[in-house]
Amino acid sequence: MELPFRTGSFPSPPPIASEAMSPRLILVLGDQLSPDLSSLCAGDRAIDVVLMAEVMAEASYVRHHRKKLAFVFSAMRHFAEELRQAGWRVDYVRLDNPANTGTLQGEVQRALARHRLGQTLATEPGEWRLMETMRGWDATELLPDDRFVADRHGFAQWAQDRKGLRMEHFYRLMRRKTGLLMVGDQPAGGQWNFDMDNRKPAKSNVAMPRPLPFPPDPITREVLDMVAGRFDDHFGDLEPFWFATTRAEAEQAFAHFLKTSLRDFGAYQDAMLRDHKFLHHAFVAVYLNAGLLDPLEMCRAVETEWRAGRVPLNSAEGFIRQIIGWREFVRGVYWWRMPGYAASNALEAHRPLPEFYWSGDTPMACLRACIAQTREEAYAHHIQRLMVTGNFALLAGIDPHELHEWYLAVYADAYEWVELPNTIGMSQFADGGLLASKPYAASGAYIHRMSDYCGDCAYDVKAKAGPRACPFNLLYWRFIARHKQRLSRNPRMAQMVRTWERFSPEKQAQLVNDADAFLAVLG
Ligand code: FAD
Ligand code: DLZ
Ligand code: SF4
Fold first, then answer.
1. pLDDT digit string (tens) for 177-204?
2. Residue 217 backbone class (left: φ over 0; alpha: ψ -120 to 50; beta: rest)
3. 287, 422, 424, 426: which to mutate for ligand 1, most atoms within 8 A of CB?
4. What is the pLDDT of residues 67-123, one digit of tens each?
5. In whole angstroms, what is the distance from residue 243 CA to residue 283 CA?
6. Which atom belonging to ligand 3 lies closest to the Cα atom of 457?
7. Alpha carbon of 437 to those of 198, 384, 489: distances in Å?
8. Which of 74, 86, 333, 509 lies at a 20 to 30 A Cα distance from 213?
């Protein structure tokens, strides 16, 4: 059962062919900022040349948030400096270089000619789109990206032999493989999962920690000026910019999280508050996905905090599950099911994405708050993404592909391998239940219980019908009615279908009419 994941050992790069001993160009992408990247490990710093290139094609395949662009370019420039200090010859092409061709392929070709090299070496890119392109390049060797706990081929092998995929099964394999929170072959605390302890609403009047900010240094300042000048049509506030842009800073930010927030991470994981954008969340996905942090090192540090008695097990387990469970699982699903996965639309949702997802201009206070903080910080935490912006889109029948492009653009941590399965699978159920066991559909009552948004809203969360009824309440029943055949076959949703069927025909008609009236003016 555990064999596909090579228990106890991690994938190592395949041997390099003997002809590859001549100097090569090593292409390092903007989310590959790890000194132990497979291509760097296989390279030879005495003879090879590292190429890093800022290119318009990557900066504009969706209109990335301006803070995300600033983060990627600044982190790339800092990483290039670190490689130089480590003895690598680095050729760094800036976006504003007049000779920049605008594409990675163009920059590789130019660099090969500049350095009189004939071969390129790279670590596999994280996105299918780029993998397809790079596989077509001449004389290019692609090495596996081994910065993950599970290798993607092993995942596909494991997944295709199973009737139904469940993250929990995969997660237990990862716990066994890594030994994290294990006592012998049993889970610490006698339970694999403490999610039931992790659903407390939070109080808005208590002091909250916040992620460690870093004032921009001269490299970042130069990048901020460039992004301000070139990307004024992209979404999001560029300043104040406070993200870590080096590995050392990202490690400091994570250490700060361990000290100030991990203890309460579990209990308040699902809470949402107007004035506390980060609550006890780590704000590390942006660093982790770019390669500035290492997932296993992070999990081991969390485990150490628990073993030292400084944090409770539900928090340590909750955090580790997100990293070696969900993060690895969605990556596995992505590579297993692409390219078709991106076009999934099992619920046949075709409504265009409402304009307010960009402007935040809506009387719905929960959506207004989540979109405002997304614009300010290129960040919203998981429950804001899943149960506010995602839930609304699911209930309203928004086209999942349009929504996917929105999530990919607006979050600083967004790369397709992690964003797409979260959007298509977990949030929109557009894969028909491959990734999630039920649609994450909820009425206003859930948002009211877990947040303080409703007090500030033009709608009444308690009203189930009429013009002031919370739109989530109206849309929830319309969703159940619309998909009742499919949902009645789902053991976790069948009860809601039965409730719907017990409503009188008049009540059903009113709910659907009110919901349709709301959608008609949604735009
Ligand atoms: P914390 O809440 O502190 O969690 C710790 C870490 O666990 C995160 O940094 C992340 O690496 C990992 N993690 C937690 N949940 C997930 C998950 N469902 N999938 C993968 N990793 C997870 N995460 C991304 O990294 N990039 C995305 O583009 C992205 N898009 C999402 C889109 C939707 C619709 C949804 C519902 C979720 C998405 N997520 C995405 C997952 C999750 O929301 C973010 O990882 C998390 O909010 C990042 O903030 P944090 O670092 O403070 O995380
Ligand atoms: C996200 C991003 C951006 C905005 N810009 C660049 C870039 O200019 N050069 C680069 O090498 N990488 C960039 N990236 C990261 C890539 O988009 C990422 O490597 C692919 O999407 C694969 O995950
Ligand atoms: Fe959101 Fe409804 Fe609450 Fe308004 S009343 S904040 S729309 S859940």
1. 999 999 999 999 999 999 887 778 888 7
2. beta
3. 422
4. 999 999 999 999 999 999 999 999 999 999 999 999 999 999 999 999 999 999 999
5. 10
6. 4
7. 19, 20, 12
8. 86
